[in-house]
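F.,

This is the one I mentioned.
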């Protein structure tokens, strides 16, 4: 079996150096990061093109690890890209509710409405019951619509550095389990 390329897909702000996504990349030099021109003012077409190019350049199958706004990016990309078949799995963490002005800033709504298609690859959504960017019921609804499994973590906030998540060993375990099942 060919080991998939892991693509880290940061959300709004780009997952700084203390974010688990950046820490995981530091520990796994074979993994790659999807880069965006502007992490603070997303343009949907640019973000979609950057993800599509990263998947195209990856050797072999791909596993996506997205956080926050980039969960919506991954789902929108899967809806529109001919390359979605190269992806074998996705870990979607803390999906930002791009439809909700009460939960997300205006710049996050570039991917609204949130797509609700069944994803063509195995997916695990990880959410918190107190995430300021998505209500737990909405996260559960997204997971159901996407045909994904859901792991709900109590009291985890936005599952980022500001919520106290550094290396996030549980996330690493969840990713490993997802990849073992592919």
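My design for it:
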């Amino acid at each position: 079996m060919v080991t998939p390329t892991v693509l880290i897909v940061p959300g709004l702000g780009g997952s700084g150096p203390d974010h688990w996504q950046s820490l995981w990349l530091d520990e796994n030099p074979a993994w790659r990061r999807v880069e965006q021109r502007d992490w603070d003012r997303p343009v949907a077409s640019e973000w979609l093109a950057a993800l599509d190019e990263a998947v195209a350049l990856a050797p072999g199958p791909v596993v996506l690890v997205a956080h926050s706004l980039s969960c919506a990016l991954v789902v929108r990309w899967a809806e529109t890209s001919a390359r979605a078949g190269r992806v074998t799995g996705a870990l979607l963490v803390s999906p930002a509710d791009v439809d909700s002005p009460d939960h997300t800033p205006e710049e996050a709504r570039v991917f609204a409405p949130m797509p609700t298609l069944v994803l063509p690859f195995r997916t695990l959504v990880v959410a918190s019951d107190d995430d300021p960017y998505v209500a737990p019921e909405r996260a559960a609804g997204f997971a159901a619509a996407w045909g994904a499994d859901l792991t709900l973590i109590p009291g985890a906030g936005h599952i980022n550095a500001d919520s106290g998540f550094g290396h996030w060993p549980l996330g690493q375990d969840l990713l490993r389990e997802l990849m073992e099942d592919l």
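The chain has a mean pLDDT of 97.

Talk soon.
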